[in-house]
Design brief:
The complex is a heterodimer of chains A (about 425) and B (about 150).
Chain A (H helix, E strand, L loop, with lengths): L17 H6 L4 H9 L2 H11 L11 H6 L11 E6 L8 H8 L1 H15 L3 E6 L4 H17 L14 E6 L9 H8 L23 E5 H13 L1 H6 L8 E7 L6 E6 L4 H8 L9 E5 L19 H6 L8 E6 L4 H15 L5 H4 L1 H13 L5 H13 L9 H15 L1 H10 L6
Parallel strand pairs in A: 1-2, 1-4, 2-3, 5-8
Antiparallel strand pairs in A: 5-6, 7-8
Chain B lengths: L3 H11 L9 H12 L4 H11 L3 H8 L13 E6 L2 H5 L2 H12 L12 E6 L11 E3 L2 E3 L4 H9 L3
Parallel strand pairs in B: 1-2
Antiparallel strand pairs in B: 1-3, 3-4
Helix pairs in contact in B: 1-2, 2-3, 3-4
Classes of the chains: A alpha/beta (about 425), B alpha+beta (about 150).
Bound molecules: flavin mononucleotide and iron/sulfur cluster.
Flavin mononucleotide binds next to strand 4 of chain A.
């Protein structure tokens, strides 16, 4: 089984240097794109490959690039790499940033060339200190080798990549909030339209892509769309970094064909539940996805199939709820996070989330009443898509609405017994 | 108020962006790096240097969780309270810190050695529970490990 994204990653040793990655053929895609292809051809290839964005929403990457205006007057343009990764339970981009920075740089060059951006920013979460070091070192090597800077490989194409270290706040990962943050403002999302591809950073056309998405670009240019499609188990295309955390035997991260079943990831790769712990449910792709339960284990982890089961692929890193963890406490932890991280712009999110958190606290501490459950249900409706400015609030509603569905009896038990049955 | 070193570092950051105000966060972080936190004077100095109003800089400084607008101890302990760490027992870790140092979230020891704050998921989920002290990550924590870690910070 091919593992293009992680083949050169060994967490125990330093990532490949520019020379080593070049020797392994890592920059062949860049060479091919800049020397043999037009920007439009690169974008077209990306479309054909069906590379869906790995940042959570699963948007077709080539299509996003194709929305960027290509006339001279629309310059300067920007490519923005989203390395904010603050979704609870998610640790996949960190692995790529620390483990193979040159793979990402190669992807950034290709994406920038496709949209004709001469400046790219990597927007990275402040806590990723090791990744910061690795990326800075790799950027310095790339400049020295002439693969960044002016007239790259004699193609006439120029590109500067800057690393921007953030200062905290989950909302910075939202595309338009990220742009505001890069401009030195509060990270509140912007109204859409205009979309960032037309008017983004400093009012100029800008593409925002996730680390895992961009890490693919050079591989696809080098080996083609058909090769990429053949890697997945479902025809969607590519492999995926899947992760598991919680009470399993071997928590970790694995590159597997996109569409590997939930059961295979959980039982074969994560080794099943840890001794003495039973399975109750899981969030398939971070805190802002709906719970899946036993009946969903044989579903392939693919964007469309997980959506059919009522959840989202999200980041593809699962969090397991075991039978010794209280589901109400689990959901309360998530809602506490969402309440704290709300940017405060719209009412259902700013006011609703702390209210939800308070109610969950009351239930968990034995002060719950049955009407609280109705209030929670109603709140999930207020947080639904279309009622707020960005997807933060709908994301916060997902574990709550599905938690109320699958663990309703546990909520009721708290209220009836006037205490948490797990304590 | 800013030292020559701070000014130089901020000027270096300004080169990364086409407009000066985009370096606002980086400038605040530089001030904090040198002084531990960002005072009112720090906000004003950054505003002056980047040609922004004090209020604009203040609005940015108070939005981001990693900019401290109050003094903190010499070392800042950030206890991950993300969901994976909760499942894996971060509660015990926090309880131990509270007991050992006598401080809760948001507080600083009387000798200014430690401040303890909660932090959202650190991305170390497969090695939970986790925390950071200053810029260092620590994983798969136990109470014994914690003792050894804390003793390294004076
Ligand atoms: C609250 C919120 C937080 C987000 N955080 C991230 C993040 O940390 N990393 C990321 O790649 N995308 C994040 N996204 C999704 C981005 O808005 C955007 O869709 C994504 O970066 C696009 O990249 P892709 O097309 O390559 O997936 C977040 C979205 C929301 C609403
Ligand atoms: S939904 Fe929440 S995070 Fe998003 S813009 Fe509204 S208040 Fe801000």
């Amino acid at each position: 089984m091919e593992k293009p994204l992680t083949q050169h990653i060994n967490p125990k040793s330093a990532p490949l240097t520019f020379k080593e990655y070049e020797k392994a053929g890592g920059y062949e895609g860049v060479r091919k794109a800049l020397k043999e292809m037009t920007p439009a051809e690169v974008t077209q290839l990306m479309k054909e490959s069906n590379l869906l964005g790995r940042g959570g929403a699963g948007f077709l990457t080539g299509l996003k690039w194709s929305f960027v205006p290509m006339d001279e007057a629309s310059k300067p343009k920007y490519l923005l790499c989203n390395a904010d990764e603050m979704e609870p339970g998610t640790f996949k981009d960190r692995y790529l940033l620390e483990g193979n920075p040159h793979q990402l740089i190669a992807g950034l060059i290709i994406a920038s060339y496709a949209i004709q951006a001469e400046t790219a920013y990597i927007f990275m979460r402040w806590a990723y200190k090791k990744a910061e070091k690795m990326i800075n070192k790799a950027l310095a090597e790339a400049y020295e080798a002439g693969i960044l800077g002016k007239n790259i490989l004699g193609s006439g194409f120029n590109l500067d990549i800057h690393l921007h270290m953030s200062a905290g706040r989950y909302i910075c990962g939202e595309e338009t909030a990220l742009i505001n943050s890069l401009e030195g403002r509060r990270a509140t999302p912007r109204t859409k339209p205009p979309f960032s591809v037309v008017s983004g950073l400093f009012g100029q056309p800008s593409v925002v892509n996730n680390v895992e998405t961009l890490s693919w670009a050079s591989h696809i240019v080098e080996k083609g769309a058909d090769w990429f499609k053949s890697l997945s188990a479902t025809g969607t295309g590519g492999t995926k970094l899947y992760g598991v955390s919680g009470r399993v035997k071997k928590p970790g991260l694995w590159e597997l064909p996109l569409g590997t079943t939930v059961r295979e990831i959980l039982e074969e790769h994560a080794g099943g539940m840890a001794e003495g712990y039973g399975f109750r449910g899981l969030l398939p792709g971070g805190a802002s996805t709906d719970f899946l339960v036993e009946e969903h284990l044989d579903i392939p982890m693919d964007f469309s199939t997980i959506a059919k089961a009522g959840s989202r692929m999200g980041t593809g890193t699962m969090i397991i709820l075991d039978d010794k963890t209280c589901p109400v406490a689990f959901i309360r932890n998530l809602e506490n996070f969402f309440a704290l991280e709300s940017c405060g712009w719209c009412t259902p999110c700013r006011e609703g989330l702390p209210w939800i958190e308070k109610i969950l606290g009351a239930i968990e501490e034995g002060r719950g009443r049955m009407e609280h459950l109705e209030i929670l249900q109603r709140q999930t409706k207020y947080l639904a898509p279309g009622h707020t400015f960005c997807a933060h609030a709908p994301g916060a509603a997902e574990p709550l609405q599905s938690g109320l569905k699958y663990f309703y009896d546990d909520f009721v038990k708290h209220i009836e017994q006037k205490k948490c049955p797990w304590r | 108020m800013l030292s020559e070193v701070e000014k130089k570092e901020i000027q270096e950051e300004m080169k990364m962006y086409p407009v000066a105000s985009a370096a606002c966060l980086s400038a605040l972080k530089i001030v904090q790096e040198h002084r531990g936190w960002v005072s009112d004077e720090g906000v004003k100095a950054v505003a002056g240097m980047l040609n922004m109003s004090n209020e604009e800089v203040e609005s940015v400084a108070t939005f981001y969780s990693r900019i401290y607008r109050k003094p903190v101890g010499r070392n800042v302990i950030l206890v991950c309270d993300g969901i994976s760490c909760m499942i894996m027992g971060h509660e015990n870790i926090y309880e131990h810190i509270k007991e050992k140092l006598g401080i809760s979230y948001g507080e600083t020891t009387s000798d200014d050695r430690f401040t303890v704050l909660p932090i959202s998921c650190l991305g170390d989920c497969d090695h939970a529970p986790s925390l950071m002290v200053n810029n260092d990550h620590y994983n798969e924590l136990t109470v014994e490990k914690l003792e050894a870690i804390l003793s390294q910070y004076k």
